[in-house]
Each structure stands twice: as structure tokens, then as C-alpha cells.
Amino acid sequence: MIEFRGLHKAFGTLVVLAGVDLTVREGETLVLLGPSGTGKSVLLKHAIGLLEPDAGDVIVDDVSIAEASHEQLLAVRRRVGYVFQNSALFDSMTVLENLWLALDDDRNLRTVESCREEATELLRKVNLDASALDKYPAELSGGMRKRVGVARAIASRPKYLLYDEPTTGLDPVNAENIDNLILELRRELGVTSIVVTHDLESAFQVGDRIALLFEGRIHACGAPDEILASRDPVVHKFVRRGHVDAVVA
Amino acid sequence: MSRTAALPVLSPVRGLLEHVGRASLLAVAIVRQLPYPRRYVNAMIQQAYAMGVRSLPLVLFMAVLGGAVTSQQTGAQFAGALPIWVVGSVVAKSVITELGPILTGLVLVGRIGASIAAELGTMRVTEQIDALYAMGRDPVPFLVVPRVIGGFLVFPALVVMADFAGMLSGWFFGLLSVEGLTTADFLYGARFYFEPFDVWYSVIKGTAFGVAITFLACYIGLEGRGGAEGVGRTTTAATVVSTVAIMMIDVLVVPLLKLF
After folding, report:
1. Nearest residue on chain B to A106, alpha-carbon basis
2. What is the full per-residue pLDDT of chain B (260 aa) written as tens digits?
3. How far is CA A29 from CA A2, A24, A211, B188, in A?
4. How many Å apart are CA B121 and CA B186, to the nearest integer?
5. Helices (H), chain A
6. Facing B126 at nearest CB: one of A88, A101, A107
7. Which of A77, A85, A106 sits opposite B134 (nearest CB)?
8. Which of A86, B29, B198, B256 is the most exposed place for a label (fewest CB within 10 A)?
9. Left if phi > 0, otherwise alpha if psi is -120 to 50, otherwise beta: which for A190?
10. Closest residue by Cα to residue A202 from A236, A237, A233, A242
């Protein structure tokens, strides 16, 4: 379980998070919605200690991220797979080397052959074939880079998967493929996921629950149909603007 | 003056102290990784190759120019006033103790320091550094230690080669441009004031420059913020700070060595 408790974060005078309380239950996919620039990615980065909160804490499996030792933080990060907005693949490395880095630990004990086998299997899970292994990120399409980013995130067999804008910048077909991939991974691996997005269609397709981040706080949180039925003016305005009713129906 | 009015004046000092603190923490993190060569040795060999072999032509070219200018200027200014063999003394002493290390340092600030800062700065702004943290990997043994150790090993070797190239060039251009100078005169002058410690002095400077340039470039690169413009600022900052640093080291080496 991941719990955000009273999380505050400001950058200079800009207050981004103003007391976020949110619990992500075991096995669910929680979608974090909100307008651009409201701090969704900032919130996600706090979950594995990539950013330090000004106040509040994040608890991952009873470990306080704010008070965790270096070793505890490393252990938490190895249980979490993180899919970055722009994939964040290491551009000086091939796809194989990117996956190798995620598969191996600091001791570099794996052989090239065993890594190639495991990397091929990871690519199969994200519907890519082994021909991508020897390519550099710059040689891949946007959709392929996202998939390799997902493959890298699941390489350590994580308990949690955090997706930061997984469909941003993709065409509708590739965006739907990524949505299907999120659903498949949940079925196959049974992971608990947080999906940060402002793509409403994607949100209502993959989310068990949807939380709306607005003005630094969780403004609403509930099942997709509860969010759709909400009479709260902020929720109503945000959801109506995306015209998602037809998708869910 | 009120307390609030004093704050803007103090903020650059505070910023500088914060940088010193964070750079010190990075230095400690590097030292803590040194007993685990398996974590960085492969990357270190790649970095040493990239720094050493690929920089060698430019380093030698600059050293040749430095040696040529030194012999020509010495000949032009001292001809008739001092014995002709002084050209050999001035070339040997100035190339080995000063021009070799400092020209190599300045070349490598642009060739290596800027490249490291731009690469790590780009990795920072494209979240590749965050991706390393997210995988439970420490960027220090992966990115910083191979570059700093690579610089530590390669820079002194480059400086020695630059010294040699500068001496040869000084001799060759001296014969061409200084009337009456012979090889025997040049060698006599070069040996007359030569002390073996001069070479160690050159190597010590090269080592200090290597560590300073790579460490500062890594630190400034990892601190990078913003997009393409941020990477540009990072690269400029690394170049300026490293240039100032090697000049300061150059000034401080003599008094520091006298302490020992």
C-alpha cells in the first residue's frame, strides 16, 4: 500500500502540493487526474523519494520515505517500477543495455546471453520483438520508446508500477496500445499501479479509482462512475470538458 | 540595516556555501565507492580511452604551438643579450613546469569538461538521472567515479606527452628561427637548469587538473536544471569554473609543495 500523508511541496514561492492525502490500495490501478501543471508528476516523484517533501510523508509498505535510510530507500525503489513521461531511456545505450541495467545489480554478474534472453522476454511482454534490442532509443518511434520504458520498469518484477503520463505525445492507436498494456500487466503481474495522466479517455479505461488533483490537494477520489456522476463543479467541469461519458458508456 | 534588507546581499554567499556543501558530499560519495572497482572499472576504461586517445591529437598540437612560440619569443628577446643556449633553458623550464600542464588543462577543460557537463546536464533534464535513482542505482559509481578516476589516470600522461611534444617543437622551431642556435646549444641549455623534480611537478599539476576538471564538470552537470537552455548554462558554467579552478591550482601548487 502507498499512502501520501499531508504532502506539501513548493518550488520557491510556487506552492505545488498543499497537503495531499491519498491512499493507493493493494492491487488497484489508481489514476491521478488533473489539469497540466498541477503537480501530478511531482506527487508521483515523492513516492520513491526523487523529491523531498517540505512537510508530510509517503508510506510505502510501512516504510516512511521521508525518514528512510539510504538502504531502505534503495529497497523501496527496487520494489517500484517507474515509467517516465519521456521514457528517460539512457540514450548512449542500446535497448539491451538499458534493460540490462534494470535487470542487473551493482555486481554486474549477469552474462550477455542471459541478459539477452531476459530482455527478449521483457520486450515480448510489451509487444515488441527482439529486433529492437540492438537499437538505440533515438532509432525507436515514440510508442516503441514508451514500451521499452515500461519493459525497463517491469524488469525488476516490481510490486508497484508508477506511470507518468504514459500516453502523452502518442497517436490514438499507440495510446490505446499503451492502455491495453497497462491492463495486461495488471492482469499478468498483479501489480498495484498509479497512472498520472490528463488523458481522460485513458484514465477511464485503465483506472479502478480516479483521483482529481486540483489546487495542490486531492479534490475528489472515487470509482470512475462516481467521478462521472459527481455534481462537484470542479469535477464536473473537468470531466465534461473531456467528453468521456460516451467512452465509459 | 534591517534583517530583511540584508538577505539579498547574503543570498549569493548562502548559494556558494550550499554548492560547497553539496560538492563535498559528492566528493565523499566518490571516495566511498573507491573500494568497489567492479562497479566502475569497465566504464572507467571507456572514459579513459575517450579522454586520452581522442584528446591526444589536440593536446599535442597545442603543445607544439606552445613550444614553437616559446623558442621564437626567447630567441627574439634575448638574442645578443644572453648566451644563445638560454633558449634551450627557457623552453625546457617553461614547457615542463608551466606551458605543458596549463595548455593541456585548458584544452581538456573545453574538450572533456564541457562534454561531461553537457552529457550529465542532458541526462539530468531528460530524467535519465532520476531513472537511475528509480531503478535503485546510485549515479555516483555509474557516472561520476569512472569519469573522475579516468581523468586522474589520463591527464598526467597527457601532460607528460605534451611536455615532450613542446620540447621537441621548441628545439625544431628554435633551429629554424633563432640565428646561430645549434642542437648542441639547445641541449646544453635544456640540461643546465633541468631538475628531475620539474617532471614530477608537471605530473602533479596534471593529476590535480584531471581530478578538478572532471569532478567539477560532473558536479555542475548533475546540478543541471531546465531544458536545452539549462544544458547550455551548465556547459558554460563548467567551462568557466574549471578554467578558474585550474588557474588557481596552478598558482597554489608552488606554495603547497613548499610546505612538504
Report:
1. B39
2. 445 455 666 778 888 899 999 999 999 999 999 999 988 998 999 999 999 999 999 999 999 999 999 999 998 888 777 888 999 999 999 999 999 999 999 999 999 999 999 999 999 999 999 999 998 888 999 899 999 999 999 999 999 999 999 999 999 999 998 888 899 999 999 999 888 889 999 999 999 999 999 999 999 999 988 888 889 999 999 999 999 999 999 999 888 887 77
3. 12, 8, 11, 82
4. 48
5. 40-46, 70-79, 95-103, 112-125, 142-154, 172-189, 200-206, 224-229, 233-242, 245-248
6. A88
7. A77
8. B256
9. left
10. A242
**What's the length of chain A?**
249
Is the CB of A68 inside 8 Å of chain B's CB atoms?
no
Distances from the Cα of B209 to the Cα of A80, B92, B141, B159, angstroms: 41, 21, 21, 10
ipTM of the complex: 0.86
Closest to B59 in 3D by CA, of B151, B159, B148, B150: B159
